[in-house]
Amino acid sequence: MARKNPAAQVVVIGLGRFGSSLALELERNGTEVLGIDAMMKNVQPLVGELTHVVQADATDEEAMRQLGVHEFERAVIAIGTHLESSILATSMVRGFGVQEIWAKAMTEAHARILRQLDVKNIVRPEADMGKRVAHLIGGRQLDYIEFDDGYALIKMRPPTVALGVPLGESDIRQRFGVTVVGVKRIGQPFTYATNETVLELEDIIIISGDRRKVEAFSNLD
Length: 221
Fold this sequence. Notes:
It contains nine helices and eleven strands. It is of the alpha/beta class.
């Protein structure tokens, strides 16, 4: 499988709720997936749904080589509940020379070990979702994405200070340190915001900037 078009293929190791959901979404987006899990109860529901799905021990190097894991350019280690298996599988895939590795971590200690294995892309689904939901509860924010360097994107309703005048005249960027990058009118798709855009009360906007500044802007009346 991996020799066909490595750039369009991903191996997903660990097919629990996170791994199976991710693998299915990759398939829906046109990526060929090799799914691997040690438990048949996780493998069976995905037969016919993924390009290939196999029951195998992801810590067995010979088994992984027979499956062609060493030929992939991208891998996701989605094992979360078994720390040792996660670390061993990650170390093995790293040793295979896989260029791009994503790994799930259940705790900060788990994430720290993965970083020591030189994994650049670490996902903590529960912690990340908790942080995201906390930003959405009780505020104007409709969606929230934060990046590692403190940069954030927020989908929200515009505050009063942003209404009624072109963005180029409102000085939002100078006054609040944020940029309005997109706007959606009722019944219309999102479009890029320009200096001539005049925001209305029922609009939905996307703003970007430093996390603290976009949070402060989203709390304006």
